[in-house]
Amino acid sequence: QSALTQPRSVSGSPGQSVTISCTGTNSDVGTYNYVSWYQQYPGKAPKLMIHDASKRPSGVPDRFSGSKSGNTASLTISGLQAEDEADYYCCSYAGNYYVLFGGGTKLTVL
Amino acid sequence: QVQLQESGPGLVKPSETLSLTCTVSGASITSYYWNWIRQSPGKGLEWLGYMYYTGNTNYNPSLKSRVIISRDTPENQFSLKLSSVTAADTAVYYCARAPSIFGVMEVWGQGTTVTVSS
Predict the structure, then answer these.
(1) CB distance B45–A89 less than 8 Å?
(2) Does residue A1 belong to the interface with chain B, where contact is any CB pair within 8 Å?
(3) Fewer Cβ neighbours under 10 Å: the N or C end of chain B?
(4) 3-state SS class at A89
């Protein structure tokens, strides 16, 4: 199976909102609500930011929110801060005990 | 506090077998699901497979014939073996814990870099 499709890069100014999309197929994102999002700084391990499409783990700021519609999941970061500049990856369960990641999106805070 | 730590050779020759270990502290590997994930230079994340708390395993179909995940319960470790490696297997390898099979990687190791080169 191919990786989930994410834009290579997005950008926004401090205080603005940005949305990162993650497009899959009827076999993964479209069928399961098991979409998660990860934040990764250079040289560091990824960190879980959203799971089950829209749930935030304890400690993740409420500026981060997730949603899903059809075959596309989205991560929205509101009130953008300089510290949000990182790479973001989506991940979806794809059935048959298989997990699929997106190609990653680089977020630049202008 | 749950911590995961990857260890193993940083350099592997082509056609040989890559072997890594993930040592878990603060939790037992007889609970949860234990994953291996890699990231090639400048690329995205790729899920390699996981071991259930029961000891059963599931692998990425694209690598299935080359991957084996096993565990050492007394040592609270689980391991990755990837056979017949090529330069394309050069990557940072991460181990991660998930509460289920659905890909929620809630705790990650720091990652270890493996280079495949003669």
Answers:
(1) yes
(2) yes
(3) N
(4) strand
CA distance A51 to A45: 17
Residue A89 · residue B103 · CB < 8 Å: no
Assess A27–B contact: CB distance below 8 Å, yes or no: no
Interchain CB contact of A34 with B (< 8 Å): yes
For B44, the closest of A93, A98, A103 (CB atoms) is A103
Tokens 């990786």 identify what position?
A3
Q: Average pLDDT by consecutive 10-residue portion of chain A (110 residues)?
A: 91 97 95 97 97 96 97 98 97 92 96
Residue B94's φ and ψ, nearest 5 degrees, are -115, 145
Q: Kindly report, residue by residue over B47-100, the tens digit of the pLDDT.
A: 999 999 888 999 999 987 999 999 999 999 999 999 999 999 999 999 999 998
Res B67: pLDDT: 97
Would the CB atoms of A98 and B58 count as touching at under 8 Å? Answer: yes
DSSP string, A15-39: T--EEEEEE--TTTTTT---EEEEE
The answer to whether A45 contacts chain B (CB < 8 Å) is yes
